[in-house]
Amino acid sequence: MTGALRLAALLVAAVIVFLLPGQVPALYGAFTVIAILAVAAYGLDIVLSDLGEVSLAHTVFFAAGAYATGLLATRAGAGSWTTLGAALLAGVAIALLLGLITLRLREFVFSLVTYAATVVAAALAHNWNFLGGSDGVSGIPTLDLSIGPWALTARNDAELWPFAFVLLLVTLYAVRQFRRSRPGAMAMMVHLNPRLATMSGIDVRRVRLGIFVLSAPFSAAAGWLYAYQRAYVGPDLFETYFLVLMLTAVVIIGKRMLFGPLLGTALIIGQERFLSFGGDVNAVILGGALIVALAFLPGGLASAFTGLATRFSAKKNSREDVVDA
After folding, report:
1. pLDDT value, residue 324
2. CB-CB contact of 69 with 223 (8 Å)
3. Is 234 helix (H, G, I), strand (E, B) or coil?
4. What is the pTM of this model?
């Protein structure tokens, strides 16, 4: 398929996805949540797939974006553009601080430290009155990104869906461009062969820090929009559910696939919304999916389907050779 045909196919698919909830209004809520949480997962995807590190702190960036939004919107009366900027800055600041702390750490130890940061952040959210304590922050006003005469507000999921869709498209474009850029190539070299990267003149620590900080705004932006979608933020954002969801979304389809986290998130939220077996059972299904993906499908479902297709093709060719003989 040529580049023009591929672009046309993607545009058609995007239009269909955007218009689909309008045909089935009950889908607006699910599609909005899928888009938001997929954006959050793309932040983790950059660190896990491109840098080769398992960050367990991206729920902190997600929650930081949400809390910055909730606090400024309810206590300072800040508009949605201001809260977006604050959410991005909060995510970057926390990522920079955590990145400097973990600069010398790799793999298992890095994961432990990032998880410890999540535990500390959750404890602060539960006990710090400034953040609302265990009650969280409620009464967040509706999203309003109006510019001059253009009224851009969202009072419900149907009106919020276009904003979530645009945020998802921007994220997909940004991730695609990053992976085609020099920093993306350096991240992969640092991931696959840090010694060769050092010999090539690449500052490995600087690249690791830069990519880690770069990943934070994606998850923070998702937290920003999620705060408006729920009109509430609280300590539940630090629950294991969001961390496992992000990890599963990244690995279940296949790492470093542009649409992988989106499809993975769609599978998870689709099961919860339309094939739900109750909260506890859904949690078991989500955790089980992560275990299966890590233990039996290291290349994800895409790799598994590719392997099956290859085997089928090989068997078909062998049968044809026998017939010809």
Report:
1. 57
2. yes
3. coil
4. 0.92
